[in-house]
TrEMBL record, chain A:
It comes from the Eukaryota. One of its GO terms (biological process) is cristae formation. It is found in: Mitochondrion inner membrane. It is a single-pass membrane protein. Belongs to the MICOS complex subunit Mic60 family. InterPro entries: MIC60. The keyword DNA-binding does not apply. GO terms for cellular component: MICOS complex. The keyword Transmembrane helix applies. Keywords: Coiled coil, Membrane, Mitochondrion, Mitochondrion inner membrane, Transmembrane, Transmembrane helix. This is MICOS complex subunit MIC60.
TrEMBL record, chain B:
The chain crosses the membrane at residues 25-44. This is MICOS complex subunit MIC10. It is a single-pass membrane protein. Keywords: Membrane, Mitochondrion, Mitochondrion inner membrane, Transmembrane, Transmembrane helix. Component of the mitochondrial contact site and cristae organizing system (MICOS) complex. One of its GO terms (cellular component) is MICOS complex. It comes from the Eukaryota. Component of the MICOS complex, a large protein complex of the mitochondrial inner membrane that plays crucial roles in the maintenance of crista junctions, inner membrane architecture, and formation of contact sites to the outer membrane. Belongs to the MICOS complex subunit Mic10 family.
Amino acid sequence: MLGAIRQAARVRTANLFSPNVTRQQIFLQTRKRIYSTETTSKSTSDISKAATNGATPFKGATPTETVKEELAANNAVKEELAKKKGFGFGKFILGITIFGGIAYGGAVYYSLEHEDFRDAFVEHVYGAEKSVEYVEDLQRQGTFERIGKDVKQFNNKAFDKGKDVFNRVNQIFKQPDTVKVPIEKIVKERKIELPEDPILLKLTYTLNELIDILDNYDVKDKDDLIKRAKEELRELGTHIDLLRIEDQARIQAHITEQNEKYNQLYVSKENELKRQLEDEKKRIYEQHYEQFNSELARESARHNEELKNELFRQSVEIQRRWIRDVKFMVEKERGGRLARLDNINHHLKILERISVDNAEHLDDSLKTHRLWCALRALQNAIEQPDRIPFANQIAAMRHLSSTDEIVTTVLSTIDDNVANNGVDSISDLSARFATVRDEVRRASLVPENGGVFAHLLSIMLSKVLFHKHGLVEGSDVESILARVQYHLNENDLDTATRELNQLKGWPKKLAEDWIKAARNHLEIKQAIEVIETQATLSSLSVV
Amino acid sequence: MTNEEKKTSSEDILNKKWDLCLSNLLVKSGIGLSVGIVASALIFKKKSWPIAMSTGFGIGVAYADCQRTFNPTAIPGVKIIKPPPS
């Protein structure tokens, strides 16, 4: 039984390792197992062995051996399949790659030419843009042209080299030709010398051939014939030369005759033309001479006319001037006495005007003096330690400066209340500021909507605050108060008021009255300054 | 007899308010005290707590009046929202 179990276990592991074992094999194995368990359940290991032996129909070996064989077989099958698969798969991949590469290359090449295809290709295929651009760059750099040129050059070189070789081979084969030439030369010398004339040349060649033929046959008087032929050929040659020379002489004579004739004609023509030129010249010269004379006469006549006109005009001018001068002198004499009377009248008028001006000036200066007095009175009133109403002074000034626009305007800006109540002086305001300052300090810590306790706290805590002095920077209450005190010490009420105006909230409300009083004072002071300047200017009689 | 009283100068506003407050406090607490004493004597059998309570009422009323003088806008139950700065 143990053995069967072991076998079963082994079979199972074998199954794991060989997944491609066929169904039939599995079936067989299971049947084996069943049989084995059946038998071993009844018997001992011997019987089980026998049973298992009996249960293995196809192999009569021990279970371990059969299993081993099975494993081996499975491995073999697996290897086969793997090989087949590996080999087939590899081939498939290779084929696909090659095809893909060719297709890609073809697409890139096609896209170089056609724009539409290029756009579609670049859009849909990954990496196509880079390769197309790369190829285009190469194209632009002319690598393709270079490669093409190189290839062509190489082709040419190869072809040339081939031709060289072929020529050399041909030469080697053509060697025997050179041997023949000198033999021909020698043979020709024996025959006739070659004349220059082409017709004679032909004749000599035929004669040479005849001589050749004669040489081959042995004919009597061969040499005589040859010599006679030579002689006659030479005579013919000389005859032809003579004829040629005669011809040439005749032609030359004809030419010289013609030359002479034409020369004569030319000379006669020349003489005729010269005569004509002379005639023309003379005629033109006479024409010009006449023209010139007539022009000259005309010009002189005109010039005379002009001179006469000029003379006439000048005489008229001189006469007129003389008359004017005479008139002028008469007038001068006459005007002398009348002018004196006019002068006196004129002087009188001037004197009148001066006296009137003088009176006016006196009035003005009187007014200005009065204005000055009133102004002084006003200033006095303002600088008193108590409030003194100055309405009277203002009324007086108004009356005095009814003509002055500026002064009236300024006076109209002064409030009636202020005039009736008077203004505080700077010392008053400084003293008052002390109380204001204490009050402001007490209210400085009150928040915006503070109630009783806020005010109480502010009062108590403000006693703990440090006081500041001098010209300190800052926008808190203490700094502002310090600055105002500083300005008041310098009697600068304007800046002090401006500073105090920067308070906010309860402190501002407490300081309002003081600010108003200071403002009034400043307004009055400004008005006084303006009137003062006006009075100064008018007293200098600039206005 | 002047028709209008002398106007208070601005630096005395708070002082006037304090005067009002304090006088109010004294008067009202005094009234509260007296009412408390009377009530304690008559109604509450000579206990001490009504006196304290009544005085307290008086002080409270004075405080409320004070609060109103110093901050008239702080009405209970009303909050003033400032418009956002534009």
